[in-house]
């Protein structure tokens, strides 16, 4: 797969920020995450958000719960059910940073760090 990320969960994945992708390492395995419109719609429903603006505001204001963080990472493509039980490289704070970057790249366009 030239020019983009390698297969999700391959352990050697490289996210492409120009596509809104970020990397999350769970149990020493790298997963490339990206939010699609469908994933955002399912996330809204799962978290009971009234709108996308409400959803983003929840994370920007820091009023999200751990369950919200898990739901966001799973919506991005992390293995369902694994985020809550896996060892996240960098711990919970890194998981929150990855989630924040995922939202930022999804809604703000390309501003890779």
From TrEMBL:
Basic residues bias spans: 1-17
Renumbered residue ranges of the record's region Disordered: 1-20
Cross-referenced InterPro entries: Phage_TAC_11
Name of the protein described by the UniProt record: Gene transfer agent family protein
Origin species: Pontivivens nitratireducens
Source organism phylogeny: Bacteria, Pseudomonadati, Pseudomonadota, Alphaproteobacteria, Rhodobacterales
């Amino acid at each position: 797969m030239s020019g983009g990320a390698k297969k999700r969960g391959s352990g050697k994945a490289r996210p492409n920020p120009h596509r809104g992708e970020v990397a999350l390492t769970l149990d020493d395995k790298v997963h490339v995450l990206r939010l699609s419109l469908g994933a955002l719609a399912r996330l809204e429903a799962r978290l009971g958000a009234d709108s996308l603006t409400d959803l983003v505001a929840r994370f920007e204001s820091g009023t999200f719960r751990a369950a919200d963080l898990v739901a966001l990472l799973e919506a991005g493509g992390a293995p369902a059910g694994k985020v809550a039980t896996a060892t996240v490289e960098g711990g919970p704070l890194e998981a929150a940073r990855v989630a924040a970057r995922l939202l930022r790249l999804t809604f703000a366009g390309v501003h890779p760090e």
